[in-house]
Amino acid sequence: xxxxxxxxxxxxxxxxxxxxxxxxxxxxxxxxxxxxxxxxxxxxxxxxxxxxxxxxxxxxx
Length: 61
Hints:
alpha+beta
């Protein structure tokens, strides 16, 4: 069994919504539109941290 490394380097939708100060529906919409990658981890959708950081870097410019 894996060590859960990808889960540790990712965020749940609610965590990302809080970090970005947006509604969780906004994050789900971005996933649906393929603006953010996501994967299932149990019952949760998770967004990889490299994608979160890349999006934040682009938004700062």
